Amino acid sequence: MSLDLSHTIELEPAFHDLDPMDIVWHGHYVKYLELARCALLSRFGYDYPQMRDSGYAWPIVDMRLKYVGMVSYGQRIRIRAEITEWENRLRIDYLISDAVSGRRLNKAYTIQVAVSIETRQMEYVCPPVLWQRLGVAP
Amino acid sequence: MSLDLSHTIELEPAFHDLDPMDIVWHGHYVKYLELARCALLSRFGYDYPQMRDSGYAWPIVDMRLKYVGMVSYGQRIRIRAEITEWENRLRIDYLISDAVSGRRLNKAYTIQVAVSIETRQMEYVCPPVLWQRLGVAP
Amino acid sequence: MSLDLSHTIELEPAFHDLDPMDIVWHGHYVKYLELARCALLSRFGYDYPQMRDSGYAWPIVDMRLKYVGMVSYGQRIRIRAEITEWENRLRIDYLISDAVSGRRLNKAYTIQVAVSIETRQMEYVCPPVLWQRLGVAP
Amino acid sequence: MSLDLSHTIELEPAFHDLDPMDIVWHGHYVKYLELARCALLSRFGYDYPQMRDSGYAWPIVDMRLKYVGMVSYGQRIRIRAEITEWENRLRIDYLISDAVSGRRLNKAYTIQVAVSIETRQMEYVCPPVLWQRLGVAP
Description:
Largest interface: A-D, 22 and 22 residues
Low-confidence stretches of chain A: none
Largest sheet of chain A: 5 strands, antiparallel
Distance between the termini of chain A: 18 Å
CATH class of chain A: Alpha Beta
Number of domains of chain A: 1
Number of helices of chain A: 3
Strand order of the largest sheet of chain A: 1-4-5-6-3
Oligomer: homotetramer
Order of helices and strands of chain A: EHHEEEEEEH
CATH topology of chain A: Thiol Ester Dehydrase, Chain A
Helix content of chain A: 10-25%
């Protein structure tokens, strides 16, 4: 049985996400990634409030987005987020596609590391709470 | 001698503040007001970090903006903020104008009240720390 | 038979809408109002793309928000938008409330006027296209 | 004589850029990059309005940010942007550092390609207008 560490959300861009070219400004995709990431982590009971309660902040330390197609107003998009690394850092890969045609629009990843809220020190290995929540072995 | 409780900043809108009509999206003016308000309060040593250290949060409870003219990319604007009430609540009036022509673009106000960070209770009279910082009598 | 010119949406604030007090930053409510307004106008076939196609931009000229309660992460909120004026200007009233308890969190309005995209002149009476779409008499 | 295709700006983060950890939310760095990029391109007379007038949009097709340190309220930061590719695509490298200590906070790049506004086709070689403005040979 394979472990499914992915989650998919759908949304339509807001008017305030559009730029003068009448397409979504590239920086707003970072918000879409976050919405998908939070929905994914929430599914495992380890979204922002639970992270904080577990004593760790999980800042993004690396993020890359490759834009293939533009997103317009009224266009329904699908954002799939999947956890692909959890041992020393939390890596999530994203695929944004058109919800109707399935056409790829954006490919991205984010990498987070655990930082102890108390000591403000970065952890070089992910804390066990992550593995417990995800149901994975390190 | 008259007391000057005002401060003026200047800025040019960022590209990411523009909407499909090639003008600043109306919601971003709220950020411009905040930049002017923080600069004003900072002048009196009572910006966000000092508010927090004094034991009070100062949430906005009322805000109104009247838009007279549009703001375009490359247009230099001036935001004047002035404290006009400080007894029971902190009211700041704003005037946004074109920095070159002086033409009025927006008139706004914000009203904040003190909330004790410890008790989460709203204060019905502004705490004396505000008056001390502003150099005013209640 | 009474005419229903209202629409209600529900949402949960995004993590990127939170401020250092762990509540939604007051300026982001303007986005929530817009989401409800666009959903309402879309229901009548007169959202942003149809406005543009009809030859009019509808800039916000007046906006007021009164904040009664704070919004936290994970809190489901309901935003009700209702068109209350359509003769000379388009006025929409909003009520934001907690989706579970029904407690009021914010009361707001926005006022828009029609501006001809071709002449850039403001219309002192709303163009008939608005009334046709809403199914109202001026 | 070496060609200098770089530009540096300084800024302090706005209160509305802070997240619940009291640091700048990672997505807002994209805005800082854009401010530095626009200032750089403006220096060469090829910022957004001139791009549009030259018949080209220059969408971001690839963007990467590596976060080394956090940015706090009141912290003055320096963003250096430098054009490092201009033949087939426009690549800009960024370094964000603390303006006082010089400590590195973020390293990033963006890659843009020219898209003809008329044909909506991507150009596989940068249009000569870019080279003319930058004063470079392809």
